[in-house]
Design brief:
Elements (H helix, E strand, L loop, with lengths): L24 E3 L12 H10 L12 H11 L6 E4 L1 H13 L5 E6 L3 H9 L3 E6 L8 H11 L3 E5 L13 H8 L6 E5 L20 E6 L12 E4 L2 H8 L9 H11 L2 H22 L4 E3 L6 E6 L4 H10 L2 E5 L9 E5 L3 H16 L4
Parallel strand pairs: 1-11, 3-4, 3-5, 5-6, 6-7
Antiparallel strand pairs: 2-8, 7-8, 9-10, 10-12, 11-12
Helix pairs in contact: 1-8, 2-8, 3-4, 5-6
């Protein structure tokens, strides 16, 4: 008996994975450095005791959407929630992408923008960033004019570079697509660590979506909870596509509970930003090239050590970072998550030692 065939357009594509290696210091997946605040788990337990387990969850997750909206000073009908920001992006592409449609990305950037687009049978056109990994608006204009994309992805701060687009970038791209039917998606998974955001630009007359996540700021990578803010008419379209009861009641309750610790999480963001500055300043004294970052991570390249080799040397010293050395446009680069101060000091010590190790 034959085996069912995988779709031809995805059969040879690899998934998106980060190595899981047994080390003392893990700084490779941009997780929050600390667990949720004290009291969070108790609030979740209290919420769980009041759930009607024999009933389906609140289909449109209104309490959670309202809590998110309140934090941004928006309306609840401008919020969509799903199982991680990746499902948010997947729902967007199931709704506005698909066969015969095209998504534009600007490489190097977050790999899931292309991957999710292709798994939804959306063609992908790739623009290029500059040699210093910044977004080139002339290149965006070229892609818009030549490819006529239906969806345009921007990532700010960009992953894996950490670079933040200039404040007027979103407005200028919206002007480029003003006479088209395109949708602009701004991925702000690390937006809380940056000084500017596209959220204030959201307006009923603009085809703009901003996606965010609970994984980074809210220390809830294990929960898999993401959301977007957009005009209410876009959110309504997404609910017409997403599976019924897609977000379980426990996840909704945990998200509401987390939002009750806003002040504490803001303090944690400030700590990460401070540590980011300290690390980048320290690397300025080492034989490496480092990119400015407005995210919870930063990108660097050793001046005289091959990226793959340096990654292995760090692993040998029980420190795991993300190896981007073979990614297009990122020759020799490694990406480092901002951890606790102790983890960051361990990384610095390992890096200094690894750079000093004789080659050969």
């Amino acid at each position: 008996m034959g085996r069912p065939r995988v779709r031809d357009d995805i059969a040879l594509r690899a998934g998106y994975h980060s190595p899981q290696v047994d080390v003392a210091i893990r700084l490779n997946t941009n997780e929050a450095p600390e667990s949720p605040p004290a009291g969070f788990e108790q609030r979740v337990v209290e919420a769980v005791t009041s759930l009607d387990w024999n009933r389906y969850p609140e289909r449109r997750a209104m309490p959670l959407r309202t809590a998110i909206a309140d934090r941004y000073g928006r309306a609840a009908d401008e919020v969509f929630v799903a199982n991680g920001s990746n499902e948010v992006l997947q729902t967007l592409m199931l709704t506005f992408g698909g066969p015969g449609r095209t998504a534009a990305v600007f490489e190097p950037t977050y790999a899931l923008h292309s991957h999710i687009s292709r798994t939804t049978s959306t063609s992908v056109v790739e623009g290029r960033r500059t040699d210093d990994l910044r977004l080139d608006l002339d290149e965006v204009q070229r892609v818009v004019e030549t490819a006529g994309p239906d969806v345009i992805f921007l990532c700010s701060p960009n992953n894996p570079s950490g670079l933040l687009d200039p404040p007027d970038t979103v407005e200028r791209v919206l002007e480029m697509i003003a006479d088209t039917d395109a949708l602009l998606v701004v991925d702000e998974a690390y937006g809380q660590f940056a000084p500017t955001s596209a959220v204030p630009l959201i307006d009923d007359d603009l085809p703009l979506v901003v996606s965010r996540t609970f994984s980074k700021t809210w220390s809830l990578a294990a929960l898999r909870l993401g959301y977007l803010l957009a005009p209410a008419w876009i959110v309504d379209e997404l609910f017409g596509v997403v599976l019924p009861y897609h977000l379980d009641a426990l996840k909704q309750a945990a998200g509401v509970a987390a939002l009750g610790f806003g002040d504490e999480m803001d303090r944690r963001v400030a700590t990460v930003v401070e540590e980011r500055g300290r690390l980048i300043a320290r690397l300025a004294d080492l034989p490496v090239t480092t990119w400015d970052s407005e995210a919870s991570f930063f990108l660097f390249r050793a001046d005289a050590v091959d990226g793959d080799e340096l990654w292995k040397r760090l692993v040998d010293r029980s420190v795991l970072v993300r190896n981007c050395a073979t990614w297009p446009g990122l020759d020799g680069c490694l990406r480092v998550t901002i951890g606790t101060r102790e983890e960051n000091d361990a990384f610095l010590a390992a890096l200094v030692d690894a750079l000093d190790q004789p080659t050969g």
